[in-house]
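USER:
Working in pairs, take the chain set out below, taking as long as you need, and write a paragraph about the fold.
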Amino acid sequence: MTGAISLALLSITNVSYADTTQDLVNALVTKGVLTQEEGALLSKGHDKKKANTPVVTNKGGKFSIQSADGKNEVALTGRMHFDYRATDVDDDALDSSDTDEYDVDGKSMSDEFEMRRARIGIKGKLDGIWKYDVVLNGVGKSTNVLDTASLTFAAMKPFQIQFGRFKQAFNLEGLTSSNDIDFNERSFINQMSPHKKLGVAIKGEPIKGMTYMVTKYQEAYNTDTVENENNYSGRLTYDFASANKIKDSIFHVGISGFTEDYAMTPKTSSNGGQTTHAKFLTFKSAGRGFSPLFRMDQGGEDIGFNAVSAKAKQQVHIESNIFGLEGILAKGPFKLQGEYAGGKFESKDEINGNDMSADIQTAYLSANYMLSGEHYSKSYKGGIMKGINVANPFDFETGTGTGAWEIGARYEYLDVDDIKIDNTGAATNSRVVGALDCGVATDDDYTSCNNGKGGANQYTIGLKWIANQNVLAKVSYTYADYDHDIIAKDLSSNEAFDSEQLLQTRIQWMF
């Protein structure tokens, strides 16, 4: 009888040995059905199997598989951001011609739905000392199918090395995940940031409250960019609250910067033409709307015939040196956050001898308050803001819970100054475009704008409902005031406008 029971229990352990089975073994030993030796034999087999059994978790909608020792992990990650934008510019600046609304510039001023982001990927760790991620884009240009893909040696917290495609060391707002940003879109600063590039980084947290990151990166991996391999970024942050164990607070300060030195191949625009341009700096209006609010186009060569997207035979040289400051002051459910970035962008056609430059300054200051009482300090980690840890999550099945509610306001500005354009060489088609004081032009296309300037001020208020760790909804209203009239390039109406009102909504799903 005892042998039959032992055989049956052994067969169970070969399939699945749960804790309830171990309890059964203990009970059989206690009742004398199994001897101590037989019980120990079964328990030994169970312990060995348990030590090699992967652990599957599904916490907060985050699905992962870990090795039994916790040193290896594969976790699924993804997000979907579905937006709607409504602007008053489409009524003021567009005429009744249907063709205008399908022009490149006209479309950027339309009321529209947008699948802002759709990503899927995996992330995790290897052997307890490596971290990795591979994330793919479901929307965007074909060249941006790969969102991020990196491997990080993370055995030591003070010193780590990262390889692959990842966010560069600049701009607090840019380093904050798009799932966790305060408003629907990031500020002007993010439009000059290096973003996600191929490269290598050295980073870490040498002491409590301090982080650093230094990178060397490649400007792009498309055929329009020729690398000089002189692109670097760096960031250093310190949080006085973490370092001094001040509860429920953030006193974060940081400095950052990047320098770029590379070459681009000029090409004609989507509208065709004979002259080529290298478009190396573009600012869009609120909510990634009107483009260009400001743009620099270094002129290339005259290819001698009308063509669409034809490329020049030579490259133009691009240089930039940008410095940034950042800060966060938070206490309980209240947070102030601000950043400044400024520097010079320069370009030169080495063959024809033309060059251009401009000084750019951007900044923002935002204030946010958690109406539901959550504390921002719990969302701060490693010099970056993470997602809010919702105190009372909303359950869509039962309808219980309130979720987290947040209100916020932001002021930001873009300042363009000291524009220089030298068109005295063999080619004379370098230009700037946008809200500038460069004199009269029928489409804001300026080939002569020395000492010119321009810019914009934008005011945003927003409301966010974080239902739980996986679902979020937000709405924002922005009023944009441009320093000078903008004429929508390529539109037959030639209507000018100097302000914009924009309403944006987003439904966001993430895990």
Q: What stands out?
A: The chain has two domains: 4-50, 54-510. The radius of gyration is 28 Å. The mean pLDDT is 84.
